[in-house]
Design goal:
This protein has 385 residues and is α+β, with helices and mostly antiparallel strands. The protein is built from 11 helices and 20 strands. Among the domains are: 83 residues, no CATH class; 80 residues, Sandwich (Jelly Rolls), CATH 2.60.120. The strands form 3 sheets. Strands 1, 4, 5, 14, 15, 16, 17, 18, 19 and 20 form a 10-stranded antiparallel beta sheet that branches. Strands 2, 3, 6, 8, 9, 10, 11 and 12 form an 8-stranded antiparallel beta sheet that branches. Strands 7-13 form a two-stranded antiparallel ribbon. Strand 14 and strand 15 form a beta hairpin. It starts with a strand and ends with a strand.
Length: 385
């Protein structure tokens, strides 16, 4: 039987976050004093979870560093917990971004180290040596952008809305995204103005026009709007999932979601942000082929469990939809975190019982532990090893 420990998880206060979602989930004051964008569950050094060990809180990144064999599978790269679990509370569009491959992350990190760029410099692109693949599971309806639409669809949009810049990008010899990002400031500003004007004059039900109005209202004048128009606009229903591989351009627009990613903070941005934008570096890591969105909706088993595919076969993500007055069996294997995304979850193990509120979690390590789950909430468990 393994060991189960209670965790305390930090909240990140980014400008795009909600003042209600995480506050209400955690039973706090609504609205919260400042935006609450992400709840982090993991050992990333910039915001590690705390773990209650022998009556006192310890930082999880330090625990992993001090006892890697106790927390990490033997194949864990770089001596770090190979996943970071989050709850996203999206009240405005996130930056349009791309994440590097493992090789690109390693090379970029070493290059910026040699250049002497401090890790906390806002202009630093590579904060670590890791790639950042990510998988999102919708808790509510979630809107997002991913990849680049085929040229024929972009031409149809250009004709429907009268967008000459989009017609030129779709008909050009260069790929669409590099062509749009290569516009000089004056041309980009004129294209943004023309796109916003066209969206306001268009049929209110036109999906691209609605996207333009939504993005412009929250990021007025941002040239990232042009990139957004070129991307696939996807709606996820609760329980549906989407994976973003390295090199795929993407952005989240709205909703509440669970996200599992590798434990990395490497982001190259293309717009819709006040943070550092490095277009040449983004184009260097941008994949030549931008995959079409593939929405995944795994069926539930007899215990209400859904298993979502992740990018690494050593990792697993299992979601339970718990209902009152019913317990379901589950096994916690290896190093795992169990996160409550609802009001009340009870975890019963042979040596104890834990009651979790919304946003609270447990850390398991060691041999497999058979538990029973009950309550009235969704529960997400990520395991490695």
């Amino acid at each position: 039987m393994g060991e189960i420990l209670r965790m305390r998880n930090p909240v990140q206060h980014y400008a795009w976050g909600s003042r209600e979602v995480l506050a209400r989930l955690r039973g706090g004051t609504v609205p919260s004093p400042e935006p609450e964008a992400e709840l982090w569950v993991g050992a990333h050094p910039s915001a590690p979870s705390a773990v209650l060990v022998d009556g006192r809180e310890r930082s999880l990144d330090r625990l992993v560093e001090e006892d890697p064999e106790g927390y990490l599978p033997a194949s864990a790269r770089g001596g770090q917990l190979p996943f970071l679990l989050k709850i996203l509370a999206i009240d405005a569009p996130l930056s349009i971004q791309v994440h590097p491959s493992p090789e690109q992350a390693e090379e970029g990190y070493e290059r910026e180290q040699r250049a002497g760029i401090p890790l906390d410099d806002p202009a630093r692109n590579y904060k670590d040596r890791s790639a950042k693949p990510e998988t999102v599971v919708a808790l509510t309806e979630v809107g997002l952008l991913t990849g680049v639409q085929p040229a024929e669809r972009l031409r149809a949009t250009a004709d429907r809305l009268g967008l000459e810049w989009l017609r030129a990008a779709a008909d050009g010899e260069r790929p669409v995204l590099p062509s749009v990002l290569a516009l000089d400031d004056a041309a980009a500003a004129a294209a943004v103005d023309a796109t916003v004007a066209a969206a306001r004059a268009a049929d209110p039900q036109d999906p691209v026009a609605a996207l333009v109005r939504y993005v412009h209202d929250r990021h007025p004048g941002d040239r990232g709007l042009l990139v957004a128009v070129c991307m696939h606009h996807v709606h996820l229903d609760p329980g549906q999932s989407l994976h973003t591989p390295a090199g795929q351009v993407h952005a989240y627009l709205s909703g509440t979601a669970i996200e599992v990613m590798s434990s990395s903070d490497n982001v190259l941005r293309a717009g819709l942000t006040g943070k550092h934008v490095d277009v040449p570096e983004l184009l260097a890591v941008l994949a030549d082929v931008q995959a079409d969105p593939e929405v995944v909706a795994p069926p539930a088993d007899e215990h209400g469990a859904r298993v979502y595919p992740l990018w690494d076969e050593r990792l697993s993500l299992v979601a339970h939809e718990l209902v009152p007055d019913r317990s379901v069996p589950f096994e916690l294997r290896g190093t795992a975190v169990l996160l409550a995304a609802g009001d009340r979850v009870v975890v019963r193990a042979p040596d104890g019982e834990w009651v979790l509120g919304g946003g609270e979690s447990l850390l398991h390590r060691g041999a497999t532990t058979a538990v029973e789950l009950s309550g009235d909430a969704r529960v997400f468990t990520v395991s490695c090893g």
